[in-house]
Design goal:
By secondary structure, this protein is α+β, with helices and mostly antiparallel strands. It folds into 2 domains: about 100 residues, 4'-phosphopantetheinyl transferase domain (Ribosomal Protein L22, Chain A, Alpha-Beta Complex), CATH 3.90.470.20; about 55 residues, no CATH class. Helix content is about 40%, strand content about 15%. Helix 2 packs antiparallel against helix 3.
């Protein structure tokens, strides 16, 4: 049985200062009445993209993810969720297309795993975020050998076998978030990024 997760809603007076990064976490599987509201906020190109999904679950999760992003940005910008217009970088990273001013400058990033979705938002700095469900990975040793730096591989060899899966994902999601903040592709050499494999 999948455990039910309860998230606290953001405060009514949601504000984001220049020194903060806000992280929002929720689920993509939303009730039908919520989906109707979220669908209404989408742009025509977002609706067209949603229509191209083959499976209804994938379509609904895309609509929910994009609609809730619009709600977050709308609240922080003081506009209706349907108003933000997006442009896309070379690697496909979305950004606000409107001219940046002190009032409407927002950087954001989104990640999801299964039904869990996370958003990171900042006023002044590019941000990246990632989330993964911890699960067995058949090729974990080979992937670790390819993406871990030399110091990380040394740490990896010292870990007990029952600690390796969690350490793998702990390192992977931070590297992925770093690449997303830079707007880089996954082809950038991950073994040049050096991180701790476990929390200190």
């Amino acid at each position: 049985m999948t455990p039910k997760i309860r998230f606290n809603p953001p405060p009514d007076n949601l504000q984001l200062t220049d020194r903060e990064v806000h992280v929002f976490c929720t689920v993509l599987d939303q009730p039908w009445w919520r989906m109707e509201r979220l669908t209404e906020t989408l742009s025509s190109d977002e609706r067209q993209r949603a229509a191209r999904f083959h499976f209804g679950k994938d379509k609904n999760r895309y609509v929910a993810g994009r609609g809730m992003l619009r709600e977050i940005l709308g609240r922080l910008l003081g506009v209706e969720p349907a108003e933000p217009v997006f442009s896309y970088g070379v690697r496909g990273k979305p950004r606000l297309a409107m001219p940046a001013t002190a009032e409407n400058s927002l950087h954001f990033n989104v990640a999801h795993s299964d039904s869990l979705v996370v958003y990171a938002v900042s006023r002044r700095h590019e941000v990246g975020i990632d989330v993964e469900r911890i699960r067995p990975v058949r090729e974990m040793e080979d992937i670790a050998a390819h993406i871990f730096s030399k110091p990380e591989r040394a740490q990896w060899r010292l870990l007990a076998d029952d600690k390796k899966t969690e350490a793998f994902f702990y390192c992977w999601v931070r590297k992925e978030a770093w690449l997303k903040a830079r707007g880089s592709g996954i082809d950038e050499p991950l073994n040049q990024i050096n991180l701790r494999l476990v929390e200190m």
